[in-house]
């Protein structure tokens, strides 16, 4: 059973390296150069300063052969999905699709796909792309997957035997999984991008910590399925456990790339409008990130 992965960023390379150990795998990337490098050199994983190279995958810069995959993991940023969804809609309906994006703004479009099994997930691994065929695995986390429609039976049979370095959890409620991840991202990513600080500064600096709580007080009530006290503690704990990390949104700003602020905070603001919640501080942070995108050319 061939696993297909769409996306050659950090998480796409990380998943390709691990999942190709037990299954045939094909990674679909944007450029011929990246596809050629992976086909020639494989993918190198750096963990604990040791490089490990695997050549157990093939790469393509076109979508030829996508229909032959037994399951497809979509690992591009949310704002790239618009160009991929029309391609996915033409695939055989029995192929399970797994979407692993930040934010929730894509759910309506994804739910309209004709596929029988559409799954959503979150990734807790820390990783960083070094170049087009190598990735650094900075920290082991859990990949959580649950169905948006259909079930996880076929996917679980394919991905059930991965070891403690790459644990995968299957659940029934996508809301519990994605809402919690959305709150974490909406609280940490925009603030670190605006303040230009690593995650730990949001709890180590008492003034920044007040800003963190201000965002959480606006966002958590949007999702009544989530326990407020537990979520507050969870966000603080993540800031402490990843204190040296620079968030993906901060890295995007520094590199002059477009951020996922619309997929993350933009979704929260829309929910606030629908529910009649006042979200003045979250709106301010959103506008500041959008302004930094303009200044940095993102």
UniProtKB/TrEMBL annotation:
Gene3D superfamilies: N-(1-d-carboxylethyl)-l-norvaline Dehydrogenase, domain 2, NAD(P)-binding Rossmann-like Domain. One of its GO terms (biological process) is pantothenate biosynthetic process. It catalyses: (R)-pantoate + NADP(+) = 2-dehydropantoate + NADPH + H(+). One of its GO terms (molecular function) is 2-dehydropantoate 2-reductase activity. One of its GO terms (cellular component) is cytoplasm. Keywords: NADP, Oxidoreductase, Pantothenate biosynthesis. Pathway: Cofactor biosynthesis; (R)-pantothenate biosynthesis; (R)-pantoate from 3-methyl-2-oxobutanoate: step 2/2. InterPro entries: 6-PGluconate_DH-like_C_sf, 6PGD_dom2, ApbA, Ketopantoate_reductase, KPA_reductase, KPR_N, NAD(P)-bd_dom_sf. Its EC number is 1.1.1.169. It holds the Pfam family ApbA. Residues 174-293 form the Ketopantoate reductase C-terminal domain. Residues 3-149 form the Ketopantoate reductase N-terminal domain. PANTHER family: 2-DEHYDROPANTOATE 2-REDUCTASE, 2-DEHYDROPANTOATE 2-REDUCTASE-RELATED. Catalyzes the NADPH-dependent reduction of ketopantoate into pantoic acid. Belongs to the ketopantoate reductase family. This is 2-dehydropantoate 2-reductase. It comes from Falsibacillus pallidus.
């Amino acid at each position: 059973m061939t696993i297909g992965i769409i996306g050659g960023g950090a998480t796409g390379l990380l998943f390709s390296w691990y999942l190709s150990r037990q299954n045939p795998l094909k990674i679909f990337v944007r450029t011929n150069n990246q596809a050629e490098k992976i086909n020639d050199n494989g993918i190198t994983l750096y963990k604990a300063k040791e490089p490990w190279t695997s050549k157990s995958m093939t790469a393509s810069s076109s979508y030829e052969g996508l229909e032959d995959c037994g399951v497809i993991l979509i690992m591009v940023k949310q704002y790239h999905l618009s160009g991929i969804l029309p391609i996915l809609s033409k695939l055989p309906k029995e192929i399970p699709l797994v979407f692993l994006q930040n934010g929730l703004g894509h759910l309506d479009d994804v739910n309209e796909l004709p596929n029988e099994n559409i799954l959503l997930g979150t990734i807790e691994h820390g990783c960083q792309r070094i170049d087009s065929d190598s990735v650094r695995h900075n920290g082991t986390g859990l990949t959580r997957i649950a169905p948006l429609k259909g079930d996880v039976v076929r996917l679980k049979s394919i991905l059930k035997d991965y070891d403690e370095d790459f644990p995968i959890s299957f659940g029934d409620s996508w809301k519990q999984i994605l809402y919690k991840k959305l709150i974490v991202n909406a609280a940490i990513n925009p603030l670190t991008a605006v303040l230009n600080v690593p995650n730990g500064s949001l709890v180590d600096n008492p003034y920044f910590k007040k800003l963190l709580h201000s965002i959480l007080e606006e966002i958590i009530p949007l999702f009544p399925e989530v326990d407020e006290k537990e979520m507050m503690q969870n966000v603080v704990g993540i800031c402490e456990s990843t204190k040296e990390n620079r968030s993906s949104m901060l890295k995007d700003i520094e590199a002059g790339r477009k951020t996922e602020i619309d997929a993350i905070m933009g979704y929260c603001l829309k929910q606030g409008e629908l529910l009649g919640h006042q979200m003045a501080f979250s709106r301010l942070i959103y506008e500041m990130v959008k302004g930094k995108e303009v200044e940095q050319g993102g």
